[in-house]
Amino acid sequence: MFGGIEAGGTEFVCAVGTNPQNIVVSDPMSTTTPAETFQKVIAFFRQHPPVKKIGIGSFGPVDIHRDSPTFGYITTTPKPGWANTDFAGVISRELGVAVEFDTDVNTAALGEHKWGAAVGLDDFLYLTIGTGVGGGVMVNGRLVHGLIHPELGHILLPRDPLKDPFEGNCPFHKDCLEGLTTGPALQKRWKVSPKTLPIDHPAWELEAEYIAIALVSFACTLSPKRIILGGGVMRQIQLFPMIRRRFQELLNGYLQHPAILRDVDHYIVPPALGDHAGVLGAIALAQQ
Amino acid sequence: MFGGIEAGGTEFVCAVGTNPQNIVVSDPMSTTTPAETFQKVIAFFRQHPPVKKIGIGSFGPVDIHRDSPTFGYITTTPKPGWANTDFAGVISRELGVAVEFDTDVNTAALGEHKWGAAVGLDDFLYLTIGTGVGGGVMVNGRLVHGLIHPELGHILLPRDPLKDPFEGNCPFHKDCLEGLTTGPALQKRWKVSPKTLPIDHPAWELEAEYIAIALVSFACTLSPKRIILGGGVMRQIQLFPMIRRRFQELLNGYLQHPAILRDVDHYIVPPALGDHAGVLGAIALAQQ
Q1: Interface check B70 vs A, CB under 8 A
Q2: Taking CB atoms and an 8 Å cut-off, how many pairs form between chains A and B?
Q3: Contact present, B272 and B11 (Cβ < 8 Å)
Q4: Positive or negative, the Cα torsion across B104, B109, B114, B115?
Q5: N or C: which end of chain B has fewer CB within 10 A?
Q6: pTM (predicted TM-score)
Q7: Are A123 and B137 in contact (CB < 8 Å)?
Q8: Within chain A, what is the greatest distance between any pair of CA atoms?
Q9: What are A246-259's pLDDT values in tens digits?
Q10: How far apart are the first and last CA of chain B?
Q11: Domain B2-107+275-287, second-level architecture
């Protein structure tokens, strides 16, 4: 048995199991203070059979470098009380079990690689567009960490102020991918909840445009074999065909591969794992 | 002894050796027809001691996937006579020796990893800006191939038509990175040879701006530990401090790492290998 912790800024979910068909999942636990939240996590694992290892996919920024003195910490988060918090170390010591630690999005990518939309693909990316934009990346069968970890939400995009006067709401970069495409950005641009926008509203065409531009960048930089798009905004499934079409149009035949030229419906896809994607990814991380 | 072939669209260079201090390099051979060019390559290797393996870094696009029926081919190049040309297979059969095959830029990156500006760094990128823009990428100690191979020159950049009315000259995308920053793009925008532009000409500030925007994208996507900038345009060394400053300003403190915040002079650097970089990279490829 393995353990998994999906650690979000709003709530934590824990699980014990081995795969999507064999898993016990906790109720969501509100993310309050670190001490209180960790106590709920520890209590969950103490109530269940012992696990061989626990995987943690955490909100960030996090230190995921094994050789660093702050490995397993949540680092510079603006979330009150959580900056510079040892996470992996506390869980490991309290439960006496080895821990793997990565970003929430890398962990979700790993779950999709093991049981979801990227089975058998050693080069792909998983992009999530919701209240923020994040992404997990696999290259040559291994998750990308590098200097820190990928921050796919912060690439800078072309924006035509005549077509889109909204300047973007990223506090660091204004009109980066995250500043233009999240739920809160949509809310601010259109002055209504994005959920109330009809599916033929021009908001979605503009949204698909920005996402397609970003995917062109990612495709040219990473040469992925598939791109998985998840998160709350991507529940607007009308976006998928619009993004695929604009992605092809923008690339304009430059990347000559049948996966892009002919089979784009299987190149840009939604995630295959459902509600338990995050915690399943954490279990996959523990099993690595 | 190992062999190396740097295969450019204008000229080929071959070498036999083991490292930068122990290498015999051919005169440049004009890239004429495939048959004629390959004959010159084969003659060079027949005149030298036998090699254990030959590495080829080739202009492209190329098929670098070992399991593909066209592995080792130059594929859809517009260069007359070279489309769909078996390269690795011909060299291997004629010389009776095993061959490694990759893009010219991946190969150059490998040389920098082994003997140059990226020794000991398993996550970095090598970007070349000259008559075109290309890039080699290493992640977790391995070159990135993915679906095809990275095409770093074709990410789409923000361009303000009021500051830069030049629309870009990429035949596929107009104002992608390649369309805005190459030598030919500079020539077309400023109507003079870029070599004649004084170092305080506004051309260089604009050039640094676009390159810095692209590096923000690459840094957010790949999380590299170093970025090496080479190619003819980057011989304008006044660009380096301008690019570093704009890179930091554009990131605006978002990527919180001392390598970027404090030590950017060692984060964005020129290549360390000199004239024989390409062919040394090819030898490094053979030695992998």
Answers
A1: no
A2: 154
A3: no
A4: positive
A5: C
A6: 0.96
A7: no
A8: 60
A9: 999 999 999 999 99
A10: 13
A11: 2-Layer Sandwich (3.30)
